[in-house]
């Protein structure tokens, strides 16, 4: 009687979990946008089906994130098994002994190497569409040059009008996310492994060590938030469009005020001079029922904070409280539905009251972020700044040319202290890659792509090796729990 062998798919489970989770994370937001489109636009049934098919099918392409995630996880789970088997066979055949297991150090190095190779391949897949574009562009360019040479053989070898430089940077956000997580893992691992050393801060200065542990994430968030908000004010093109739009919605400020501050930094909105920029704010003064000379930099030095308050009165404190209340309501509209979805997915995790309390706390964090930014600006330009420095040392022009905005940028990030310590790390490492991306170029010459690929592969390998070698506590927060569940065999 023949027995049928069952195929063991256990090694493939992490790969399937990674692909499914990545597919849902990419397709879910697009499906929500699809539902919004259906409500706003009148489309035929064929157009609806075509749009839905495009959304569901696009993420299944080889050069998309789900396939890259599956390749990375497969390289971190399946490839080390194959490598271990080959090494054990090699050791057994060489030493004539049965080596049933490898040392922990060799296992760790195998995991790192396999994870590095899989991440290297996944990076190439994510950028594969650009390779296809370059091949097609190259073939078209070659054909154009050949044809023109036949007609005008004496012309110089200039690129045709359709020539475009080859740029990279499509995966820069993904790379920076992995890089920041790897830095976090490396810092925690170093801190843990050196804890037994006599020079460790926990032995010499325990109070300082405890302070570092508690304030590291708030410092990271505050610094990242300052960089992002400064970029939003003066270099919005350095932020992703969706992220820029979201900050603008939360800030809820009249665009003419932002433009005035930008012009002041450029030297086109100058106090005491008629530079032709008065109409920019006089219209806003008229809408708010304020004297029009309030918006004229040639007549009013400096522009009063009452104009920046946009109708909430003269008091900077009342304006800050008003900003807090409006932002809190805006945030509650976001967080309450998320808490409802979380409870529907896991009914036994939280009580309804606990969910509302959590939403209110997160909303208070976001509201305080907005209020502290605006109040920091007012403190610098009116309340505190002129009292600390005379107008001869720091003039009103200098405050409104960037110093007041800098004060708001430095103040707003400390609202993170209102969040739970367990949430601070996730929020900090959500904004840190975006802050670094505003400093680095979002696109660069294609010849430097190997540098990004090496950083990406190394960072991913550090995180996955830490998880697979039993040091999963060093991968903190939601990322550690999600990756731990995916890699579990």
From TrEMBL:
The lineage of its organism: Eukaryota, Fungi, Dikarya, Ascomycota, Pezizomycotina. PANTHER family: TRANSMEMBRANE PROTEIN 135, TRANSMEMBRANE PROTEIN 135-RELATED. InterPro entries: Tmem135. It comes from Capronia coronata CBS 617.96. This is Transmembrane protein 135 N-terminal domain-containing protein.
């Amino acid at each position: 009687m023949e027995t049928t062998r069952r195929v063991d798919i256990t090694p493939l489970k992490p790969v399937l979990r990674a692909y499914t989770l990545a597919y849902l994370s990419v397709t879910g937001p697009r499906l929500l946008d699809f539902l919004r489109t259906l409500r706003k636009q009148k489309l035929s049934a064929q157009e609806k089906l075509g749009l839905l098919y495009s959304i569901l099918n696009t993420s299944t392409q080889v050069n998309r994130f789900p396939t890259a995630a599956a390749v990375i996880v497969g390289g971190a789970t399946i490839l080390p098994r194959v490598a271990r088997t080959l090494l054990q066979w090699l050791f057994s055949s060489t030493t004539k002994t049965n080596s049933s297991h490898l040392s922990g150090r060799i296992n760790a190095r195998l995991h790192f190497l396999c994870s590095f190779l899989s991440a290297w391949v996944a990076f190439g897949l994510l950028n594969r569409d650009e390779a296809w574009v370059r091949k097609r562009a190259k073939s078209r360019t070659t054909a154009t040059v050949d044809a023109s040479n036949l007609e005008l053989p004496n012309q110089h070898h200039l690129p045709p009008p359709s020539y475009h430089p080859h740029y990279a940077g499509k995966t820069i956000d993904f790379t920076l996310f992995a890089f920041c997580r790897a830095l976090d893992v490396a810092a925690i691992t170093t801190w843990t492994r050196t804890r037994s050393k006599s020079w460790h801060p926990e032995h010499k200065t325990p109070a300082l060590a405890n302070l570092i542990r508690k304030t590291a994430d708030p410092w990271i968030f505050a610094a990242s938030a300052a960089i992002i908000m400064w970029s939003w004010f003066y270099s919005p093109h350095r932020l992703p469009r969706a992220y820029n739009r979201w900050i603008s919605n939360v800030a809820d400020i009249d665009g003419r005020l932002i433009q005035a501050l930008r012009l002041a930094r450029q030297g086109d909105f100058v106090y005491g001079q008629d530079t032709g920029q008065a109409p920019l704010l006089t219209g806003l003064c008229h809408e708010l029922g304020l004297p029009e000379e309030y918006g004229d930099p040639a007549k009013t030095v400096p522009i009063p904070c009452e104009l920046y308050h946009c109708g909430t009165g003269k008091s900077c404190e009342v304006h800050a409280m008003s900003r807090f209340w409006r932002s809190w309501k805006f945030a509650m509209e976001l967080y309450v539905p998320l808490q409802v979805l979380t409870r529907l997915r896991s009914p036994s995790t939280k009580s309804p009251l606990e969910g509302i309390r959590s939403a209110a706390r997160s909303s208070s964090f976001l509201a305080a972020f907005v209020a502290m930014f605006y109040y920091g600006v007012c403190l610098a330009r009116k309340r505190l700044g002129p009292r600390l420095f005379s107008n001869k040392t720091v003039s009103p022009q200098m405050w409104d040319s960037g110093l007041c905005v800098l004060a708001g940028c430095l103040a707003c990030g400390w609202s993170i202290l209102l969040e739970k310590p367990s949430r601070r790390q996730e929020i900090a490492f959500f904004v840190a890659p975006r802050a670094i991306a505003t400093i680095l170029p979002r696109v660069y010459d294609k010849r430097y792509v190997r540098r990004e690929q090496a950083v990406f592969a190394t960072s991913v390998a550090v995180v996955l090796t830490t998880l697979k070698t039993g040091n999963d506590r060093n991968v903190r927060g939601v990322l550690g729990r999600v990756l731990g569940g995916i890699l579990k065999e």
